[in-house]
Specification:
The structure holds 2 protein chains of 2 kinds. Chain A is an alpha+beta fold. Chain A has helices spanning 6-19, 75-80, 138-141; strands at 36-46, 51-59, 65-73, 93-100, 107-115, 120-121. In chain A, 17% of the residues lie in helices and 34% in strands. A 5-stranded mixed β-barrel of chain A has the order 1-2-3-5-4. Chain A is globular, with a radius of gyration of 14 Å. Chain B has a 9-stranded mixed β-barrel with strand order 1-2-3-4-5-6-7-8-9. In chain B, strands 10-11 form a two-stranded antiparallel sheet. In chain B, helix 1 packs antiparallel against helix 2 (46-55). The relative contact order of chain B is 0.16. The chains are: A alpha+beta, B alpha+beta. Chains A and B meet through strand 2, strand 3, helix 2 and helix 3 of A and strand 1 of B.
């Protein structure tokens, strides 16, 4: 899973971003299409309503550390997608993809999180190819 | 087959209602419900109530709305939009004055502001609950009332099927869910709703309605696991003609987990001065973001 190709990631990004929509506020503060990929160490997984937050310490090339927050849906939606509060623990090394804030602060909308053991955590499973391009459902939008 | 079932149920409801009237007519001051109107008066014996129950359709369980978060997917513009990006809209049959009101909201959103009341944790309101909120929702069908419960909130909508009418005008007031009365036409639940607050949009695009909005819904199963809600929305203040919107809900597997979604539990994004804030623990004390940059041109 760690050797996932950029083409695969690109396809994934389009599939998820197309239906991605936070439940309680608009997605307008996030880049509508751009996603970024970062790696770091989990500081905390806030399993809360109306949105959950994963806080990850990302070390830059110059050694500086930045706390990134990525936002997802509330616990029940995450649990329906198989993401438990125990899925991410402080100290876990993760690679995450998010749609970053448009104002440049270190936060974004959670697209996917990949753990070192290859486990991928996406609030919304990637729809099967036949479903892509179809009208969005709230099942995809939640 | 469906017709036979419908007729049988209808006859059962009618018989039950008549029995009930016979029973309640003797009770002092009890006002008998009209027989045969697809409603069930309160106060039936357990046995009679069980008979009515047996004739009601089984909509038990959780349902997910299909068609996205825009209230009317049919008039979504651009087509297929999910009411999320600035400029996303739909086309209710507004008169010129209300189209201008909608346009003003769309322009505010395009300018980087954002005005969805639910972001400040207010309820979604009606008619929005039927098409502008993520699922799941749950139906609880009983003889005297049908309840719809949304995980988000949680929010509860009561539909009285006990034969009551709307309250007299001097007892009416606007609320988030309004006042809903329903009756069964065979396996179709027909609901009439008034007294909905005029300050809730149909969805996140900001599409407004007045407090004179009047909703008629026809709920029926169109497939074993698909429930249809054919809505007719009249708004004598805002519309030039009634708006027909049909939404469907898909039944989720019975083991589907559901909990509560409490908006104020960990609120990082209140609206302040018309602008959604996005508060991070790394922000300096007192930090408030300015207006969002205008939406990128499409």
């Amino acid at each position: 899973m760690r050797t996932i190709t950029s083409a695969t990631i690109g396809a994934l990004a389009v599939a998820i971003a197309a239906g991605s929509a936070p439940a309680h506020h608009s997605g307008a503060m996030f880049e509508p299409e751009k996603t970024i990929t970062l790696s770091g160490t989990v500081k905390e997984f806030e399993y809360t309503n109306p949105h959950s937050w994963l806080w990850v310490v990302v070390r830059g090339a110059d050694g500086t550390e930045t706390l990134w927050g990525i936002e997802s849906e509330g616990p029940s939606t995450l649990l329906r997608a198989g993401i438990k509060k125990t899925s991410l623990k402080p100290g876990d090394h993760v690679t995450f993809r998010c749609r970053p804030l448009r104002d440049g602060r270190p936060a974004g909308a959670w697209v996917t999180v990949i753990k070192d053991d290859g486990t991928e955590l996406s609030p919304r499973p990637v729809p099967p190819p036949a479903a892509q391009g179809a009208a969005p459902t709230t099942e995809a939008a939640r | 087959m469906a017709f036979t079932g419908n007729r049988r149920r209808h006859a059962l409801l009618l018989a039950t209602a008549m029995l009930a009237i016979a029973a309640t007519a003797s009770a002092a001051g009890a006002e008998p419900a009209r027989p045969g109107n697809g409603t069930t008066p309160s106060g039936l014996s357990q046995a009679e109530r069980a008979k009515v129950f047996a004739g009601l359709p089984n909509w038990t369980g959780l349902w997910n709305p299909l068609g996205g978060l825009i209230f009317d997917p049919n008039t979504a513009d651009p087509k297929g939009n999910n009411a999320q990006q600035p400029g996303d809209r739909e086309h209710p049959p507004y008169n010129a004055e209300w189209e201008a009101k909608y346009q003003e909201k769309l322009n505010r959103t395009l300018a980087g502001y954002f005005l969805d009341p639910i972001t400040n944790c207010l309820p979604h309101g009606m008619p929005r609950l039927m098409g502008g909120i993520p699922g799941p929702l749950e139906f609880i069908v009983t003889p005297e009332q049908v309840w719809i419960v949304w995980e988000y909130g949680p929010q509860l909508r009561r539909i009285y099927t006990d034969g009551r009418g709307h309250p007299p005008e001097d007892e009416q007031f606007d609320s988030w869910t309004g006042h809903s009365i329903g009756r069964w036409e065979g396996d179709t639940l027909v609901v009439d709703t008034i007294n909905m607050r005029g300050d809730t949009p149909y969805d996140r695009t900001g599409s407004p309605h007045s407090d004179k909005v009047h909703l008629t819904e026809r709920f029926r199963l169109v497939a074993p696991d698909q429930l249809e809600n054919a809505m007719t929305i009249e708004d004598p203040v805002a519309f030039t003609r009634p708006w027909q919107v049909t939404r469907r809900y898909r039944r989720l597997p019975p083991e589907t987990f559901v909990s509560d979604v409490i908006c104020t539990e960990s609120q990082h994004s209140p609206i302040v001065n018309g602008q959604t804030q996005f508060i991070l623990p790394t922000d300096p004390p007192g930090y408030v973001v300015g207006p969002m940059p205008p939406a990128p041109k499409k």
